[in-house]
Structures are given as C-alpha cells and as structure tokens.
Amino acid sequence: MPALPDVVTRRLPRLPFPFSAPTVPGGVEAPARRRRAGADYDTEWARRYPARLARAALVEAVARPAVAALARPERHGLDRLDALAAAGGPVIFAANHHSHVDTPLLVTSIPEPWRHRLFVGAAADYFFRTPVTSALSALALGAIPIERAKVGRRSADRAARLLDDGWSMLIFPEGGRSPDGWGQPFRGGAAYLSTRCRVPVVPVHIEGTGRILRKGRKLPSPSTARVTFGAPLVPGPDDDTRRLGTAIERAVAMLADEATTDWWSARRRAHAGATPQLAGPDAPAWRRAWALGDPDRTRTRQRRRWPDL
Predict the structure, then answer these.
(1) Tens of pLDDT along 81-136?
(2) pLDDT level of residue 8 (50, 70, 90 thresholds)
(3) How would DSSP label each residue in 58-114?
(4) Residue 129 in 3-state DSSP?
(5) Which domains does the chain possess?
(6) What are phi and psi of 119, to 5 degrees?
C-alpha cells in the first residue's frame, strides 16, 4: 500500500484559546467538567434570582391557567398548614403519583410561603436525559435530579443542602407514576431527608389526574382533580427512616380514604386500623382493574371496594 502524502498525515494546527479549551499545566489537576445532563447536572443556576423570577412568571402566568382549564382542581386541607406557615421554615411535601399532571398541579396548589421557594425531586433518567430537558426541568420546575435505580448519596446531599438553606421540597415517594391506577410502595427518600434535616413532612393525596393523563396516554383529557393536604408529620427524636416512612405512607392512604368517602368515616377506619391500602388488592391485573373501577369515570364520593367473593 503506498504511503499517504504528507498533506493527509500532517495534523491540523490547534486553534488558540478562546477558540479551543485551554491547556492544563503539568502537575495541575484538571477541574471536573460540568455535566450537561443526567444525575450530575448542576442546577445551582436555577436558584439564582433571574431564574427564580422567570419560574414565578411561568407558574403564575402559564401553569396556573393551564391547570385550572385542564384539571379544575379542588383543594382541601389547606387549613392544616396554618401553624406551619406561621412558624416558617422549609417543608417536605410527599404525594402519591399517577400522572405528569401531578407536578404542575401541586406546584400551583402549594400555598405561600413555600410555592416560590420550592424545588422538585425529579427522576434523573427521565427529566434530565438531555441538555434541553435538563435545562427546562431546572428552570420551569426548580427540579433537581434524583436517581431512581440506586440510592445516590449525591442526590441526597444536594437535597439536604437546599433544605438546610430554607428551600422546601416536593417529592413523590413512589419513585414513578402508577402503571395501573393503584399506588406503589413508598421509598424512604422523604423520610430520610426529614430525619436528617429535622424538617416536617406534609402528606398529600392527589385524585383524578389519572383520568386526565394516565401513564401511556399521549394527549390529556380535561377532568376534575382533587388535592388533599394532610396534617404535618414532625420527626421525633426517636424516629428513624423506616418508622417515619411507614407513617407517611399511612397518612397518604388515610387522605385517599378521606377524599373518596368523608373525613369522619376515614378517621373511624384509621382508628380501627382498617384504612384501605394505596397498593390495592394482591391479585391479577384484571381483578385489580375491577376493584379500582373505570379510571375514566367522573369522580364519585364512594370508592369501589374489593368484591367479597
């Protein structure tokens, strides 16, 4: 094979700085490059004043009218937050998760003083997949990436720093949207951050967003959604992550019972230890769908119960 001419084998000259990256002197450790996507994406810029101002405008001028038109939300239990609002300080809002509508619904439903000093724990593998989705999630939602496949210390440390700085957090402990309308087991992230940072947890139940845009559907269908805020859970000196996590899941289940029946009946069942579980019956898919009822029906006040066979 004949040798290639010099014009082909000769390397092109390197462009000088600033047209190319600067060189690093020998013996000096090169700084780590900022990731533009994924779990390591830096969202600090989204907490600066220009980004906060833009996000407030998006929430109030875009998200709020869109949610009002699409979900016609009913909000209950806001009076349970009065003492927390008077005391001030950050809060962790922990909610069940059925739809992509859940996040804008809650961001526009959480009252002041937390609404405009709020960040969302969002799945790194979904909301931070590309540089574009990463920037949009950080700007519009104030989101930080959370790793779902493993327990990431980096994600927990980032959330803890923001809570310590006075930011409140919105998190979905199920880790993802419901695949069939029933709830999924809660993970321990909210409980861990609450006990670590000594921050109260407000359980929240969302009902109706599965009818608007359930998992697998491309286009939304307007319906009515209901958001119910529960009494705050304050971590005690003897509470650990497991015990508090169980209490959070139980509180959301009780709010679900309250939303589909009434406050007094839900309280009586909770006192008797008979609150229906969020996860539904342990049965084949068709029986779970039967017990749940038609997800596209208009909301009724009485939940379908597991049939007595």
Answers:
(1) 999 998 889 999 999 998 889 999 999 999 999 999 999 999 888 899 999 999 99
(2) very low
(3) HIIIIIHHHHHHHH--EEE-GGGGHHHHHH-S--EEEE---BTTHHHHHHHHSPTTT
(4) coil
(5) 44-214+224-276 (3.40.1130.10)
(6) -125, 155
